[in-house]
Write a structure and sequence with these properties.
By secondary structure, the protein is α/β, with parallel strands linked by helices. The chain folds into 2 domains: 84 residues, Baseplate protein-like domains (Phage tail protein beta-alpha-beta fold), CATH 3.55.50.10; 50 residues, no CATH class. 13% of the residues lie in helices and 31% in strands. The strands form 4 sheets. Strands 2-5-4 form a 3-stranded mixed β-sheet. Strand 4 and strand 5 form a beta hairpin. The chain is elongated and about 50 Å long.
Length: 156
């Protein structure tokens, strides 16, 4: 029907799937090693992993990768650094980042396709929530920022 919108959920695979293909068993025992060097070793010849947060800190203790894929191990390392592991969606080679990289900025406004939904708090003390859903473009990627009527949001 004309004017009807269909919603769907998509699961996408980036080249970083190569980091998630084989379980490994190894240890990193040099506590003088920086996290930056650790993620470089884990990525090896497969791809590249950038580290944007606390990369120069040294390991607090020996780390063991026991039956984890490189992706699972890198997620655990990101957790130690209070960061997230983000797949790169720009390149066709395996690339990822521990922590968010600086993305592009986009503005939305009158004429753009968006939807606003307000949910009132259910319990005393719970704040109202405002959800603004903006239709993205193929140029938008993880870590980009979108401004909508003065409020900036991060795509993740």
């Amino acid at each position: 029907m004309k004017g009807e919108i269909d919603y769907f959920e998509a699961e996408c695979v980036t080249a970083t799937a190569e980091f998630d293909s084989e379980k490994k068993y190894r240890s990193f025992q040099d506590v003088k090693m920086a996290y930056r060097e650790l993620v470089r070793n884990v990525a090896g010849d497969t791809g590249t992993v950038l580290i944007t947060k606390r990369g120069n800190e040294t390991l607090p203790h020996a780390l063991i990768q026991y039956g984890e894929t490189n992706w699972e191990f890198l997620k655990r390392i990101a957790g130690y650094l209070e960061a997230v592991l983000v797949p790169d969606t720009y390149h066709e080679v395996p690339k990822a980042a521990v922590g968010l990289v600086q993305g592009k900025r986009y503005e939305t406004g009158i004429g753009d396709i968006y939807e606003i939904d307000k949910q009132t708090g259910r319990c005393r003390g719970e704040e109202d929530k405002l959800f603004i859903t903006v239709k993205g473009t193929p140029e938008m990627h993880i870590s980009d920022r979108v401004s909508c009527y003065g409020s900036e949001s991060l795509l993740y």
